[in-house]
């Protein structure tokens, strides 16, 4: 819980990267690539 209470920049970057990958995969599925 303490880790979540104090978010770190590298954690935020990891989350952003995961979201970006998930979004890319979602669009690839939509367009059937």
Structure description:
- The chain is mainly α and 33 residues long.
- It has one domain.
- Helix content is 82%, strand content 0%.
- It is rod-shaped and about 40 Å long.
- The N and C termini lie far apart (40 Å).
- The mean pLDDT is 82.
Strand content: under 5%
The radius of gyration over CA amounts to 14 Å
Poorly predicted ranges? none
What class would the helix/strand composition place it in? mainly alpha
Distance separating the two termini: 40 Å
Q: On the 0-100 scale, what is the average pLDDT?
A: 82
- Biggest sheet record: none
Estimate the helix proportion, in percent.
over 70%
Any key phrases for this structure?
33 residues; mainly alpha; 82% helix
Topology at a glance:
Layout: H1 2-5, H2 9-31
Task: Please outline what is shown here.
The protein is an all-alpha fold. It has one domain (2-31). 82% of the residues lie in helices and 0% in strands.
């Amino acid at each position: 819980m303490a880790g979540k209470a104090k978010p770190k920049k590298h954690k935020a970057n990891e989350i952003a990267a995961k979201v970006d990958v998930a979004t890319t995969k979602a669009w690839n599925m939509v367009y059937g690539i």
